[in-house]
Q: What sequence folds into this?
């Protein structure tokens, strides 16, 4: 019992490693899992007590369970069989492809990460760059949305900051799940987005197997009452104006809707605007091509990293200035059940062509609601005054007079004009300083300003989101 046993160094090292693994596996990990499970349960209890929309069980289901449920869904199994016959492949081989697609698409929502870490990160990150505001919210209508409804927030896509902005502003009402582009799948971005509830979409894919797997996941999430955020435009606006809606995700969500069922789908329109869009120069330079798909993930990551390297020291030094305001308005919810009742139809009874006519009508109406909610910020106000007459020089008095007229025109069109502290003079000064700092406006002589002829496209980029409110320009934007 007390004799010395000699072992080779490699064997002793192996024994030590195995002992360490055993200790971690059987002692440390169970305790860590118990601790994390307790923290998650505390977060869920806290969230369910303070949210108007409870966290649905679908969001709290294990990711592996959701993947299995999706892969063995009857509609997915049917397309697997069809694709196997069409391509002359073994059914198991096609089923493995379907499983790969499911693993790529399905999120792994973590309530603790979303409400404790994700919310904190979004808040700190946003408030470092912007002064975040809710300009308007139809609280009376929003509080009447039932807990048995599937809530879908539909919004214009102004910037990649939109995800953080709406997540942060809506965090006290719901936990939103977004469709993220496949370019965000790289580590660690993909893992973070999955923990925040995002699911991944290959935009423009023509693979029928992939499209069916994606369709069924979206329908399962809607049936599971997962609150979602979608951008009907499908991508960032490259000229600032609202784009025509794309119908794919919206059609997936509503094509199987039962108007007589217990569960309704409620669309909440959201209008977003910024006094500075961080991607504005890139969007203007790549108006006629898909920047992400053409240049690839590496280009996007390098561009974003370069921007933060350039801007962070400046913002840290001039913290109070930031990039101006980021503002969102939340409008009146639209019940799909009520909307279909007015159309006197059931989408399940229609052929694809007829159904898409109605889906397009709904999408256009929602985009109209979104357009009416886009905030008119101080930069929007001042930029419009100079963009209308780019060759004209304006004195401070001229600018005040025109800004006052524009406020009246916007308000007559039921636009939500954001005036800091309710003062037009403060809005005018804020907007003017922002545009001067970016050289979109130049001071020709003390107290007299004009548009920079080399930056007219950039100036227009900040006018386009609100131009449809003005009667004199409404026909141009229709």
A:
């Amino acid at each position: 019992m007390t004799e010395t046993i000699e072992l080779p160094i490699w064997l002793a090292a192996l024994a030590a490693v195995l002992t360490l693994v055993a200790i971690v596996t059987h002692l440390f990990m169970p305790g860590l899992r118990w601790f994390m499970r307790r923290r998650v349960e505390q977060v869920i209890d806290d969230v369910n007590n303070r949210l108007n929309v409870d966290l649905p069980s679908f969001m709290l289901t294990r990711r592996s369970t959701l993947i299995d449920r999706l892969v063995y869904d009857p509609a997915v199994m049917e397309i697997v069989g069809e694709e196997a016959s069409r391509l002359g492949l073994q059914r198991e081989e096609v089923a493995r492809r379907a499983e790969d697609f499911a693993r790529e698409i399905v999120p792994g929502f973590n309530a603790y990460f979303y409400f404790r870490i994700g919310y904190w990160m979004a808040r700190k990150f946003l408030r470092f760059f912007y002064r975040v505001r809710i300009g308007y919210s139809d609280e009376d209508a929003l509080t009447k949305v039932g807990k048995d409804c599937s809530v879908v927030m539909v919004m214009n896509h102004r910037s990649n900051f939109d995800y953080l902005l709406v997540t942060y502003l809506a965090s006290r009402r719901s936990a939103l799940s977004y469709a993220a582009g496949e370019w965000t799948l790289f580590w660690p971005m993909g893992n973070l987005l999955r923990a925040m509830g995002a699911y991944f979409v290959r935009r423009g894919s023509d693979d029928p197997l992939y499209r069916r797997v994606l369709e069924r996941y979206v329908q399962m999430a809607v049936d599971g009452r997962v609150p979602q955020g979608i951008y009907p435009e499908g991508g960032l606006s490259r000229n600032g104006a609202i784009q025509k809606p794309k119908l794919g995700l919206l059609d997936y969500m509503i094509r199987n809707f039962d108007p007589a069922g217990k569960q309704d789908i409620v669309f909440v329109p959201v209008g977003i605007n910024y006094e500075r869009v961080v991607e504005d120069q890139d969007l203007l330079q790549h108006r006629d091509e898909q920047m992400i798909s053409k240049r690839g993930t590496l280009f996007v990551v390098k561009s974003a990293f370069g921007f933060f390297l350039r801007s962070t020291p400046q913002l840290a030094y001039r913290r109070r200035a930031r990039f101006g305001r980021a503002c969102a308005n939340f409008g009146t919810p639209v019940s799909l059940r009520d909307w279909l009742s007015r159309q006197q139809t059931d989408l399940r009874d229609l052929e694809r062509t007829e159904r898409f006519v109605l889906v397009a009508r709904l999408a256009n109406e929602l985009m109209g609601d979104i357009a009416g909610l886009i905030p008119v910020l101080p930069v929007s106000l001042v930029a419009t005054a100079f963009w209308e007459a780019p060759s004209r020089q304006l004195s401070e008095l001229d600018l005040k007079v025109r800004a006052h007229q524009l406020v009246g025109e916007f308000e007559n069109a039921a636009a939500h004009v954001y005036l800091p502290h309710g003062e037009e003079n403060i809005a005018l000064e804020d907007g003017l300083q922002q545009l001067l700092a970016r050289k979109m406006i130049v001071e020709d002589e003390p107290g007299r300003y004009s548009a920079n002829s080399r930056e007219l496209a950039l100036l227009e980029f900040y006018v386009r989101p609100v131009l449809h409110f003005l009667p004199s320009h409404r026909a141009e934007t229709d």
Remarks:
- Residues 288-320 form one domain.
- The chain has a mean pLDDT of 86.
- The longest strand covers residues 265-274.
- The chain has three domains: 64-287+321-372, 288-320, 378-477.
